[in-house]
Each structure stands twice: as structure tokens, then as C-alpha cells.
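Slide 14.
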Amino acid sequence: MRVLLIEDDSKIASFIVKGLKAEGFAVDHAPDGEMGLHLALTEPYDLAVIDIMLPQKDGFEVIAAIRREKIDLPVIILSARGATQDKVKGLQLGSDDYVTKPFAFSELLARIQALLRRSSGASEPTKLEVGDLSMNLITREVVRRGRKIDLQPLEFSLLEYLVRNGGRVVSKTMIMEHVWDYHFDPQTNVVESRIYHLREKIDKGFDAKLIHTVRGVGYVLKTAE
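Slide 15: predicted structure.
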């Protein structure tokens, strides 16, 4: 999952970015409203966390501009301004949630996870399955044919992205944009390397392979060739 953070306080931003990356999120950080709005309008994000008191454009302006462009991006406002009128204004402009500073990272993370589940559909399960592989999105436990598989946060995010796109070929560029927090560099082999290590954990020792390479295109997760 790829998150856009628009926050001008460098300490808070560093704290959030570090925490989200540890949970397997890809995070882009914008230190002002103008840059944040540009990213929101031009890049594919799954969710945005936006401060209100920002240089150049405040958070309210950013949210209003996003909604004017009909971009259905889930938004959480993160602000020191906890007055009821600010919360009401934010919700009226199109935000989905409001977290007041100071805050516990665990609360912000829980709200992000809940909003992502809601935005994908209220009936979305907390468990993903393909063939004999299952992923619990709450406990982050991965099991294949009764065998528990330990994955690092980035590996979990990569597998989740492949499972959610099961049967669909995804390019290296698509993987980089949704799993990492920087753009695709054709000279890097980071995707190939991560796919290799993920295969070692997911497919090694099993007759049926789940992760397949489509030469010249990308990768696909499916139960059969």
C-alpha cells in the first residue's frame, strides 16, 4: 500500500514515515501543501495523511482541490487544531477521518488500516487466500498448506499486492509504485531480488508454484501455469 504524507514538521514526518515503513507501507512525504497537491494529482496513492497548517497551501485547500478533481483518495487529517469546527470543515471538504496531535502512532496506524479496509469495500475480508496460501491482514500471518511462513514487512506488502492482483500480470513499474516509495529505475534489480527471496519462502518445497514470471512484462501470482 502506498501512502502520501503531507506534513511540514520534519520530526513528526520522520516519525510517521519510519513507523509506516516498518509496517510495510510505501510512503512519499511532501513538506508543503503545493508539493503534496501535485503528488496527489499525479501519482497513484491508496491513502493520504494531510496536516492542516501547511506552508504554501493549507490542508483544507489541498483536500478541496483533490475532491474537485474527482479523485477518490481516502484522506486522514492530522492536525494540532482539534476544535469541532475544524473537524466539521475537514469532513465537509471530503476528508474521511481526523486525528488530533499529539497522537499515538498505534492509533494512526489503526485508523489507516480501518480506512483502507472501508475504502476497498465494507465486505472486504481481513484474510486473503489463493490456492493453499492464506494471508491474515490483521495478524500479518502467512500460511501455506499448514506451514507458517515468516515474512519481513516489505515481503508481506509485496505478496499482498500480488495476491490482490491474482491472475493479473503486474509490471515492475507497478510493483515499484505500490510497494516501494520511489519511482521505477530500469537499471535497478531490486524487484527481481525481492521476488527471488519471496519465491524462496512461498514456493520452495511446494510442487505447485504460485509466483510466475512473464518475460518482458512482469509477474503474476496464480495457482497454475
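Speaker note: The chain is about 40% helix and 20% strand.
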